[in-house]
């Protein structure tokens, strides 16, 4: 497999970074994961806007535009002989001395990883599991898609198989998000999702669903919700830029309509239409 490392295509086995990289030493780095459709990275502008916000918060200086990333993606697809793939654009702070640095990082390490997508024609449903691990609060003002992923790893260790997704609650007992997903549910002709104040990562596909709800004339509410709310829902689905929209089959003793759900099917149909139009932004 070939990847990009600081603008150069290299074999993943030959890729190296310094042990003094502060992304490694102190977790100062951010990333975006996205996938291609017909070779095009879907909603790439949205991903790069979120990445820039994170890098600004981390004091990492980097200028990178969509056209550059699109070209990098195209090169890796060709080099790895793939039509479509999973990508991770990672920006690490770069080399620094031992000790915490307050000055801007001017020479970050930029890596574009890729790997094959799982090929399946069937829509995979998930079982929701309430996690014992609580969603930790962001280290800054809001949650970044940064190198700090221990909370999600601890949550994922509680799951017994790939058909499950864990749901974090906040310390206050409110629904937050999944280990790698955002959460939506539908009840009484309204769509619901937790508010950003519950420590969630504001996902790009989450943002797309919120926009799509307006296109579909489906009322949407964000707020603080107890876990019992899910057992009263008609439909539940998850969002993730790689897994797209994932229907939930059941949670605890409650069974949902899963992939057969009317609302899920409406959003899924619109999502697949949009992926074919090479949208850069929402």
Itemize the secondary structure elements and their pairings:
Layout: E1 2-5, E2 8-11, H1 22-25, E3 29-37, E4 40-41, H2 44-58, H3 66-79, E5 86-92, E6 109-115, E7 126-134, H4 150-156, E8 164-169, E9 175-178, E10 182-187, E11 190-194, H5 204-215, E12 220-223, H6 228-231, E13 235-240, E14 244-251, E15 254-255, H7 262-275
Parallel strand pairs: 7-8, 7-14, 11-12
Antiparallel strand pairs: 1-2, 1-6, 3-4, 3-5, 5-6, 8-9, 10-11, 10-13, 13-14, 14-15
Verbal overview:
This protein has helices spanning 22-25, 44-58, 66-79, 150-156, 204-215, 228-231, 262-275, and strands at residues 2-5, 8-11, 29-37, 40-41, 86-92, 109-115, 126-134, 164-169, 175-178, 182-187, 190-194, 220-223, 235-240, 244-251, 254-255. It is of the alpha+beta class and 282 residues long. It folds into 2 domains: 2-115, D-amino Acid Aminotransferase, Chain A, domain 1 (2-Layer Sandwich); 126-275, D-amino Acid Aminotransferase, subunit A, domain 2 (D-amino Acid Aminotransferase, Chain A, domain 2, Alpha-Beta Barrel). Strands 7, 8, 9, 10, 11, 12, 13, 14 and 15 form a 9-stranded mixed β-sheet that branches. A 6-stranded antiparallel β-sheet has the order 2-1-6-5-3-4. A hairpin with a 2-residue loop joins strand 3 (29-37) and strand 4. The two termini are 31 Å apart.
Summarize this, please?
The protein is an alpha+beta fold. It has helices at residues 22-25, 44-58, 66-79, 150-156, 204-215, 228-231, 262-275, and strands at 2-5, 8-11, 29-37, 40-41, 86-92, 109-115, 126-134, 164-169, 175-178, 182-187, 190-194, 220-223, 235-240, 244-251, 254-255. Strands 7, 8, 9, 10, 11, 12, 13, 14 and 15 form a 9-stranded mixed sheet that branches. The protein has a 6-stranded antiparallel sheet with strand order 2-1-6-5-3-4.
């Amino acid at each position: 497999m070939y990847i990009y490392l600081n603008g150069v295509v290299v074999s993943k086995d030959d890729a190296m970074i310094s042990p003094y990289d502060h992304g490694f030493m102190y977790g100062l780095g951010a990333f975006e994961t996205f996938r291609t459709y017909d070779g095009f990275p879907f909603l790439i502008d949205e991903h790069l806007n979120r990445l820039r916000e994170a890098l600004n918060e981390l004091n990492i200086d980097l200028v990178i535009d969509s056209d550059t990333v699109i070209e990098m993606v195209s090169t890796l697809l060709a080099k790895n002989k793939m039509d479509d793939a999973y990508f991770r654009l990672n920006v690490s702070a770069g080399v620094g001395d031992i000790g915490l640095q307050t000055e801007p990082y001017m020479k970050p390490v930029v890596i574009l990883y890729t790997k094959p997508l799982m090929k399946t024609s069937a829509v995979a449903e998930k079982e929701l599991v309430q996690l014992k691990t609580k969603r930790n609060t962001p280290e800054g003002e809001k949650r970044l898609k940064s190198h700090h992923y221990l909370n999600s790893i601890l949550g994922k260790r509680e799951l017994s198989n790939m058909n499950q997704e864990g749901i974090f609650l906040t310390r206050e007992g409110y629904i937050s998000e999944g280990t790698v997903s955002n959460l939506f549910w539908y009840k009484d002709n309204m769509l619901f999702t937790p508010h950003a104040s519950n420590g969630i990562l504001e996902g790009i596909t989450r943002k797309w669903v919120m926009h799509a709800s307006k296109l579909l004339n489906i009322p949407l509410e964000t707020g603080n919700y107890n876990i019992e709310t899910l057992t009263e829902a008609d439909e539940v689905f998850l969002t993730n830029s790689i897994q797209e929209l994932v229907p939930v089959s059941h949670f605890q003793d409650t069974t949902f309509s899963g992939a057969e759900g009317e609302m899920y099917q409406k959003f899924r149909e619109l999502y697949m239409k949009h992926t074919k139009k090479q949208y850069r932004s929402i």
